[in-house]
Design brief:
InterPro entries: IolE/XylAMocC-like, Xyl_isomerase-like_sf, Xyl_isomerase-like_TIM-brl. This protein is an alpha/beta fold and 297 residues long. Helix content is 45%, strand content 15%. α1 packs parallel to α2 and α5 packs parallel to α7. 48% of the residues are buried.
């Protein structure tokens, strides 16, 4: 059964102890199974405090972040690769110590808009780093989720098929594709088919909508998305991600282009997302049973 989560940026812009306590408490209050903890500054995460808050709230955690230009393992720059590998390992250690099951995000390149295409050598170097990091992830039973994002946030993985190819090159059962409907809506020709084709390589999934606001108020065929997840027999976490200028500030506001306020009430947004996700999953599961139920006597 899929565990349902919500991204911490729905509640707060960072992960100070105050942010941590508030975001975890609100996530539990709404009824989610887990929170996706996220920070651009790994040094801000207080492991013991976070563990205590998660235990008190009775929920699980995943972890997400992105590499930057100075830690870009796809850059074919040996010094950047070393810094990137160290940052990935640090994130893995933090995730392990707070009890997180997944480390996801833009782990294969920098979280930025590139001005040139990726190179074969850059991809090769990224694969080699992630093979080593994947070994550590496996030892700690943590899934690394390589997020497939749009062309304005990376030049390495923009489609699900690229993520599958990269996972095959890495060759680790603990390195999977992290799919996100917002990005798929921009880059995929057929979102549902891409999900089905990715199949067992899906390790993490982000729901949302085309404008990153309320689920169901944008243009994505979310009913089709959930039916595809059921067809793919995806059993991993499904986490709701949404951003508004009411919560996020710089630098994330600038990196993601969050220029307007898509919602005012985080609690209302998250409550709706959980209800919507549960309903869509149930509908998709029931749709999958129709052929069997429709057999002639």
């Amino acid at each position: 059964m899929n565990k349902l989560g919500v991204h911490a940026f729905v509640w707060t812009a960072g992960w100070t102890n105050n942010d941590c306590a508030y975001a975890i408490a609100k996530t539990a209050e709404v009824g989610f199974d887990l929170i996706e903890a996220s920070t651009l500054d790994l040094d801000l995460l207080d492991v013991e405090f976070t563990r205590k808050q998660l235990k008190q709230a009775g929920i699980g955690a995943t972890f997400s972040f992105g590499l930057d230009d100075e830690t870009d393992i796809s850059s074919n720059d040996r010094e950047k690769e070393k810094r990137g590998e160290a940052r990935l390992l640090k994130a893995l250690n933090l995730a392990r110590d707070i009890g997180a099951t997944h480390v996801c995000g833009i782990l294969e390149s920098a979280f930025q808009k590139y001005s040139v295409p990726t190179t074969a050598e850059g991809v090769k170097r990224s694969v080699e780093v992630l093979q080593r990091v994947g070994e550590v992830a496996a030892k700690n039973d943590i899934i690394l989720g390589l997020e497939v994002v749009n062309r304005y946030e990376s030049n390495v993985l923009n489609t699900a098929s690229q993520a599958v190819e990269m996972c095959k090159r890495i060759g680790s059962s603990h390195v999977k594709a992290h799919l996100d409907v917002y990005h798929m809506n921009i880059e995929e020709s057929d979102i549902s088919q891409a999900i089905i084709d990715t199949g067992d390589y899906i390790g993490y999934f982000h729901t949302g909508d085309s404008h990153r606001g309320y689920m169901g108020s944008g243009t994505i065929d979310l009913a089709g998305v959930f039916r595809a997840l059921v067809k793919a027999n995806y059993q991993g976490p499904i986490t709701f991600e949404s951003f508004s200028s009411r919560v996020v500030g710089q630098p994330l506001e600038g990196i993601l282009g969050i220029w307007r306020n898509l919602w005012e009430d985080s609690h209302d947004l998250a409550t709706h997302a959980l209800m919507y996700t549960r309903a869509q999953l149930k509908a998709a599961q029931e749709a999958a049973k129709q052929a069997e139920r429709s057999r002639l006597p």
